[in-house]
Specification:
254 residues; 2 strands; single chain; elongated; mainly alpha
């Protein structure tokens, strides 16, 4: 889709982040079309052909309830802002430190260092719940937005209506395989968590010194993986937004 800036599957930030965890591939690289063929069956060719070749009906007249291109852009920015804030603010390890409490005998007491968010240790189920919850937020927000953008495009012109139809077919055919792959990310995270913990325990055993904190590093990796997943999920939205008619220039005298 024009305007997304996609150059290839292996160029995705999500793939680059996962590559060091998985290790180098031993098999010969597989071409993009070969990878895509693993997701599609021969029966999927008919709806794709129809979206590309069959005549597109004249777009229906827009009603007062239909969003305009400008409102669609604003909605998209709002959804992206909400999801970005969720990725940065909703993690339990970024909760604000507990406020100072007052002691009847000695006055104000500062929270102990053990209460600081970056010093709290978590088991992996906490991370899994956090990751899965944010994945669900992405799914719940992005899928309806994508449908609204298709509606806006279909109202603009027959050409853009064809693009909207093609995007709908693409989402229907490729959405489920993509969801299955993304659902595997918490399992990869669990393996990464176990590896970092084992390395820290081995280092502590070898030196008889306290190992440096490894969970903050894991938390940074988890944050980066979530952001890369959001970037990947957002690419179809970016493509649809790029296809919208450009905003009309504002009247400087208005």
């Amino acid at each position: 889709m024009a305007g997304t800036g996609r150059t290839g599957f292996t160029d995705a930030a999500l793939v680059r982040r996962l590559a060091p965890w998985i290790g180098p591939a031993t098999d010969a690289p597989v071409g993009f079309l070969d990878q895509l063929s693993a997701w599609l069956r021969w029966t999927d060719a008919q709806p794709l052909f129809a979206a590309l070749q069959e005549p597109i009906a004249t777009p229906p007249c827009a009603s007062d309830e239909d969003p305009s291109p400008d409102s669609a852009r604003a909605d998209s920015q709002a959804v992206l802002g909400l999801l970005t804030r969720a990725l940065t603010d909703d993690a339990p390890w970024r909760e604000a430190p507990r406020p100072q409490r007052r002691s009847l005998s000695s006055g104000w007491i500062k929270p102990s260092a053990a209460a600081a968010p970056d010093a709290v240790a978590f088991d992996f189920p906490t991370y899994r719940r956090h990751y899965v919850a944010l994945q669900q937020q992405m799914e719940d927000r992005i899928a309806p937005l994508r449908a609204r953008l298709r509606r806006v495009l279909a109202l603009q012109s027959p050409e853009l209506a064809r693009l909207a139809a093609l995007d709908a077919v693409t989402e229907r055919l490729l959405g489920e395989p993509e969801r299955r792959l993304l659902a595997n990310l918490p399992t990869l995270l669990e393996k990464r968590f176990a590896r970092l913990r084992a390395e820290a325990e081995a280092a502590e055993h070898a030196t008889s010194d306290a190992a440096p904190p490894w969970q903050p590093h894991f938390q940074q990796e988890l944050d980066g993986l979530l952001q890369a997943e959001l970037d990947l999920r957002w690419q179809p939205i970016a493509g649809l937004l790029a296809a919208l008619p450009a905003p009309a220039p504002s009247d400087p005298l208005a």
